[in-house]
Amino acid sequence: MFKLSEIKELIKLVDQTTVQELEIESEGTRLSIKKPGTPEVVSFQQAPQAVIPAPQVQYQAAQPIATGNQPETASNAAPAADASSSLHKIVSPMVGTFYRSPSPEAASFVSSGDKVDEKTTVCIIEAMKLMNELEAEIKGEIVEVLAQNGQLVEFGQPLFLVRPD
């Protein structure tokens, strides 16, 4: 069963990100949150008692496609070790697949050394077949790209290091 405070926090998190819809099922209860403009804004329902457990699925990280969108290594990124305490981390707002560009043949949204502002799109996180653009939300310079193209990323995982302006 979901607590009201948990539901409020999830609504707030969905509202602050580019996620359009979130569905969670736990202990026989399903919660679905959709942003305005979709038919249902929030729905809450008890799942049937005869729930068949889903088969165990093992995830394997996707292999990057050789398109030049490979992560930048420490050798060609600006030195971050000395000033790491002053760097801002752009983290993943959800579990999903990290993409550096809008399509395999397109150039990366950002690379090390690029200047960004609050509205600059830095990557796409694909979750539940939805492509969610992630914005920098800070003005500065990309110091390092921490995730590989096609990599499965976790909630809160650092994706980029940014030197704030």
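That was protein one. Protein two is written in the same sequence-then-structure order:
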Amino acid sequence: MNNKNIKLLLMKKLNLKEIYVTGDNKHIKIIAIGNVFIGLSSVKKQQIVYEPLIEMITEKHIHAVSILTYTNEEWEKHKK
């Protein structure tokens, strides 16, 4: 699965405002932005992003994932 497909999958499943997916299929970096993360712990945010990817991870299509999550408000502050 390529980065574009991963991006489309996560956008559809998580109703995100923005998402950035970089790297190769073995090691990907995800930056996910959306209000779905409001009030959640860091662990819960990571779990939300992992859930749609779990089959690809267990089938070894993806080896490693780095995830950064932001609410819409946090992202606006981060970009400055």
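Helices lie at 3-14, 42-50, 54-58, 72-79. Keep this in mind for the problem set.
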